[in-house]
Amino acid sequence: MIVPISLFFILFTIAVIRSPSLVSASGIGSATIVAAPLILATYALMASVIAGRGTVDLSIGPLIGFINVTMVQVVTNGYFTNPFAFFALAFLLGAGYQLIFALIVVYVRVQPIIVSLSGFLALSGINLVILPRPGGLSPEWMSTWGMGRSVFSPPLVVLALATLAWLLFTRTAFYTHLRLMGSDERAAYTSGVPITVVRIGAHMISGLFAALAAICFTALISSGDPSQGTTYTLIAVTALVLGGASLAGGRAGVFGSALGALNLYLITFVLATFSFGAVQSFVTDLAYGTILVTSLLLTLVLPLIQRYARSFSPLLYFVALGVVVLGVTLHSVFDYGTLSAAFVPPVFPGPLDLSQAMTGPFEVATVDAATDGLRMAATPLIWGVLIAIALAALVRVAFTYGRTRDMAPAIFLLIGLIVLGAAYSISRDAPPAAAPPPTAVEAMQ
Amino acid sequence: MMPLEQTRTLSLATRLLGLIIGTVLTLLSVIFGFVQGVAVPAIILYALATMALFFWGWKFILPHFLIEAEQDAEADVTGPGPFRRVWIRFMPSLLGLGAILIVFFILAVSVEGFLNGWIVASLIILLAIIVGTRAIGPLFETNRSAFIGIMVLIGLFAVGAMNIEGFSSGYNIRSMLLFAAFLGMASVGQTLVALLGGLDLSIPSVIGASNVGMLYLISQGVPPWLAFCCVLVIGALLGVMNGLLSFRLQGQALIVTLGTGFMIAGGVQIITSIGTAYGGNVFGTVPGWLSNLAAMNGQTFGIPIPPVIVIWVLITILLVVGLRMTVYGRYLYALGVNRISAKRVMISEMKYWVMAYAVSGFFSALTGALLLGWSGGGFIGVGDQYLFLTLAAVVVGGTSLMGGQGGYGFTVIGVLVLQVLTSFLVGIGLDYEWQQFIFGLLILPMVALYARSPHIRTQI
Fold this sequence. Notes:
The structure holds 2 protein chains of 2 kinds.
Chain A: H1 2-18, H2 25-49, H3 60-76, H4 83-108, H5 112-130, H6 154-169, H7 173-183, H8 185-190, H9 195-221, H10 231-242, H11 254-273, H12 280-308, H13 314-335, E1 338-339, H14 354-359, E2 365-366, H15 369-401, H16 408-427, H17 440-444
Antiparallel strand pairs in A: 1-2
Helix pairs in contact in A: 1-11, 1-13, 2-6, 2-9, 2-10, 2-11, 3-4, 3-5, 3-9, 3-10, 4-9, 6-9, 7-9, 10-11, 11-12, 15-16
Chain B: H1 4-8, H2 12-36, H3 40-60, H4 62-74, H5 82-89, H6 91-110, H7 117-136, H8 144-163, H9 170-195, H10 203-219, H11 224-247, H12 253-273, H13 288-294, H14 307-325, H15 327-337, H16 339-344, H17 349-375, H18 386-397, H19 408-427, H20 432-450
Helix pairs in contact in B: 2-3, 7-8, 8-19, 9-14, 9-17, 9-18, 9-19, 10-11, 10-12, 10-17, 11-12, 11-17, 13-17, 14-15, 18-19
């Protein structure tokens, strides 16, 4: 969990600094609406991934598209618009498809990835048959869903209910069976778990989540789109892996999946605030790929870290980072008087400006003099705290591992260097604070 | 019961009978040939082929039936009657056969003009092939998937040739082979990686990247041959990167390669679009030799066959022989079947894993560069369809995704089946979406015919 949490807060901080409007009511509202289908699609994938046998359901994206176009065609042809009938139809389609999927996996005994591959092709074909090009109408009662003016929008309710339902589901014996089957199917079979029933059940749950995702997707675009849903496959798989699930089965969590999906949304959001112009989508691709591979490689390093930090609490970590980010958010929302409309190009070369270095190339706002002064005054404090934390950690490591032969010289050398450096900086007189040289931005203005 | 070897050789009377029937068949075909006015060399060729095929079938397939008949005769007489026995033994197949017939009749009644001679003939051919496959298939204990694939190929081709104008013309066959060559080259890496139990989803990105990258290099003034070599080397290096990154994450190779694919496609596009006003689109002229290499009207030393097909055939021969004969090939299988025992005999797992991915990257880059010659313009999305097609070709051919079973020869059959199927579906006038739908539905039964995993009960 350490990777998704850290990533989430880093991305969130950057997003807030770059665009403080994210934390306004409409900002959060629209973010919820855009992220809801993605999160639900990740849940849908999660339910079947836990079942093991490498069940990465590649057909989840086309399935969402399939439910979407079917519902839109139902409305456009005027069969019925009743919300209950609508939800029932979506659930029926999602669960029905996944039931067929599960029956094929269980009784025909073909590898699930092949079934999902053939489902991907078949569904993306049939979607184009049902609705040849994007268009159509969403039902009347759904038209206000996609506005995103307030925080409490219907997609948020759907999302919350879905999360709650999954949490309740984890309290059942069925879930225990599911995890046992996912991590070791033979053991589950020999200990009397009805694996056929469990597998079918997992797929049906996945289908229900897919139906919810399709409903939120329909609300988002308020029309039908036969090919857009397909993109959810790759994003949802990425989100699931970012959230720390094991594609081998048996291990996946609802918070991890939600965080993974949110991270992906935030990546897109942050990159959108940098205007890359024509190469925007390529940069997004590059960032997706890099983050995905890096987070996978980090899962290899993670056991190493956990050896040194045994009593690590994800919750405490979450809260601690949350406090820091809350501070940044408050700062960016209330202190930024004027937002500069023009894009500030990142200034890497040139003389180092302290305030520039602190906010990096990310900040879009121009801060007034009082805030700037306050920030300069706080700088030594922040650095002091950071160095103190680093020193404390080093000393802790030194005391624990100082006696082992391979670690000792390096650690004592490092501590010695730090002490020497500190003594040197104290012995010198503090240089007079020179006025910062004009930066490239100011020169341009 | 008699020893197996004795029953397998046919008796003298049976052999004589076979000789007579074969000769008569050959004579008949010769007479028909002369009546139809076919050229003499062709008649000789066809006659020889008929005779060889018949004798082969007579010698190898008939004994199996004879054994079965004897076994049936020896079976207990007090059991259920012969019809009942047949029913119990073939119940699923008979039910399936009945279902096909019912669907056909419903279609014939409901669709106007459906019931014509050609379609009935195609149905009979299809049924004959299904029954034949079902009856003979189990006798091929090894390479069953290849046998089924070839049967499907023959059936599809026969039905296509009968129903579609110009399906079996030289031009159409050439174009099918051309596209099959591209798909086949793209599937080389997927096959090798699948033999080790991995997957490579970065293939389409590497294809697109090399396609765009090569044109970019050419437009920057690099000599085309050098650009070609550069692209191939870079492709192989990307493959090595894939292999190294995914080695420790073998269970998630699918996702790692997906991620590197995103990175490669994004990165190459950023590089190529720096300093141009057209994001992602590269313009330039493709050299003549490259177009000749891959275009439909290309010539190999004056023979009107696109050189890509010849290259593909050479690659196929090299790979099939290489996988069977060389140490590299045998070790690859050894690793795919059982990692631990392969490690015990000092086979470096990492080396072969990275090499398989490097080969994959190399061939993806080759496909991308050749596709540039075919299309004449760079486009990053040119490889997108190969994401699922390479996987489908490997799976339909019969290489197990779990590793250790299959080979490139199987993939070639899979590629041809997919290509003939596409051509057939296009030929009967189906749109792209219906093609995709049918593709999806057909992969499943084809795989189910031979790649079913055993029941969990038997794995304990």
